[in-house]
Amino acid sequence: MICLMNSIARNIETILREIEIAAKSCGRNPDEIQLMAVSKTKPLEMLLEAYNAGMRLFGENRVHEAIEKRRELPDDAAIELIGHLQSNKVKQAVGTFSCIQSVDSLKLAEKINMRAEELGIVQDILLELKTADQDEAKTGFADIDDFFSALEQIILLKNIRIRGMMTIAPFVRDEDLIRSSFRTCRDTFLKAAERYELKDFDTLSMGMSGDFAIAIEEGATLVRIGSSIFGTRF
Ligand SMILES: *Cc1c(COP(=O)(O)O)cnc(C)c1O
Q1: Which residue, judged by its Cα, is nearest atom 7 of ligand 1?
Q2: Which of 2, 49, 190, 200 is least surrounded, with the fewest CB atoms within 10 Å of its CB?
Q3: Atom 6 in ligand 1: which residue has the minimum CA distance?
Q4: Whose CA is nearest to atom 12 of ligand 1?
Q5: Is the shortest distance between the CB of 82 and ligand 1 below 6 Å?
Q6: Topology given in CATH for the domain delimited by 5-230
Q7: Residue 135: is its pLDDT beyond 80?
Q8: Across residues 56-69, what is the average pLDDT?
Q9: Domain spans of the chain?
Q10: Ligand 1 atom at shortest distance from the alpha carbon of 212
Q11: Helices marked H in 26-143 — which ranges?
Q12: Residue 116 Cβ contacting ligand 1 at under 6 Å
């Protein structure tokens, strides 16, 4: 049987090399691209293994699971939320995650802002755009106009800092469909940055194990890699 634990460091090294190749192939500086280790469902020991191999950024999709892992991880490791956030979990999520990548409504942003104000902190968020027509990806702003009218309001919230945008490409083989999904997110990101002169709006979170090279070609600054680092999830 293959021992996945011992291969985590090696997997990270491989991914970093692939990120570098993808970046260079399109004339980008690999240092502009941050690697997130998506550790959802994986035991703490595996996160620590990744930490020891140099990883400082982790992605989780369940609030409770993330709180437990947060407690055990060294302080200089950050956990960001990449899964959908239910409003009844906002209270626990704010402050636990260094960034909430999955904000997809004005209402949710307002709840996050209110909780951040209670705690006296500023919560970093990304706005998630739905760029795939598929059922699998139900989260994210589905309509660009809705996105912009929400953004106009979210900008005004004092205890939220909008760091950028996130999207999930469709789970298909067709590279053109995947690319066009990333492109939609990047174009919207650039439009938003220009229209509102947003400060600190520098993160474009796109790309997973199967499609991160395409995402990098389309401008991703953060790639979210799970199975290629930790192995398949069951
Ligand atoms: C699970 C997940 C990932 C990682 O997926 P892999 O294919 O295992 O790399 C990335 N982003 C989001 C939003 C996820 O839910």
Answers
A1: 209
A2: 2
A3: 226
A4: 82
A5: yes
A6: TIM Barrel (3.20.20)
A7: no
A8: 98
A9: 5-230
A10: 9
A11: 44-52, 63-72, 90-93, 106-119
A12: no
